[in-house]
């Protein structure tokens, strides 16, 4: 099932409506790397105009789940996040963020994905490591 992402933003949003609600846009994806972008917007912020951690995590979880899906073993039907650890490293007050997810380990029952979230200047905003259960 591993391979290249064979659908566009509309299909991605249909599979993951929360990403559409956030305003996330798929940039590209293969089994080795999935990228998506989220524009800073005041309605996604907390105090002081800082992009909310939940918005950052929503984007990161979406690309990690997509990356895990593209790495599913034969006979699997999907994934579900079973654990997630996030380190927030800097605030975002303008521009956009881009999440880049890469598999760390692909197993028969769990896929582990690391996602870096970068600001518009390419600086690291957050690092997320997730375990995704393989569903059958």
Tell me briefly what this model is.
By secondary structure, the chain is α+β, with helices and mostly antiparallel strands. The chain has helices at residues 9-15, 17-22, 53-70; strands at 25-29, 34-39, 78-88, 96-106, 110-119, 124-135. It has three helices and six strands, in the order ααββαββββ.
What this model shows, in words?
This protein is an alpha+beta fold. 23% of the residues lie in helices and 40% in strands. The chain has helices at residues 9-15, 17-22, 53-70, and strands at 25-29, 34-39, 78-88, 96-106, 110-119, 124-135. It has a six-stranded antiparallel sheet with strand order 1-2-4-5-6-3. β5 and β6 (124-135) form a beta hairpin. It is globular.
Supply the number of structural domains. Answer: 1
Oligomeric state of this protein:
single chain
Q: Into which percentage range does the β-strand content fall?
A: 35-45%
Write down the Rg: 14 Å
* Portion in helices: 10-25%
**Mean pLDDT across residues:** 94
Per the CATH scheme, the topology name is Thiol Ester Dehydrase, Chain A
Helical run tally: 3
Question: Topology, please?
Answer:
Elements: H1 9-15, H2 17-22, E1 25-29, E2 34-39, H3 53-70, E3 78-88, E4 96-106, E5 110-119, E6 124-135
Antiparallel strand pairs: 1-2, 2-4, 3-6, 4-5, 5-6
Question: Top keywords for this entry?
Answer:
136 residues, alpha+beta, Thiol Ester Dehydrase, Chain A, 6-stranded antiparallel beta sheet, 3 helices, 6 strands, globular
């Amino acid at each position: 099932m591993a391979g290249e992402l064979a659908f566009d933003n509309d299909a991605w949003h249909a599979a993951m409506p929360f990403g559409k609600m956030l305003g996330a846009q798929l940039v590209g994806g293969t089994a080795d790397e999935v990228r998506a972008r989220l524009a800073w917007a005041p309605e996604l912020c907390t105090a002081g105009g800082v992009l909310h951690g939940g918005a950052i995590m929503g984007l990161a979880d979406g690309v990690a789940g997509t990356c895990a899906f593209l790495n599913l073993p034969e006979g699997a039907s999907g994934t579900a996040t079973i654990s997630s650890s996030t380190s927030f490293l800097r605030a975002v007050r303008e521009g956009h963020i881009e999440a880049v997810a890469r598999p760390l380990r692909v197993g028969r029952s769990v896929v582990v994905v690391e996602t870096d979230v970068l600001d518009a200047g390419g600086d690291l905003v957050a690092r997320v490591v997730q375990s995704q259960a393989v569903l059958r």
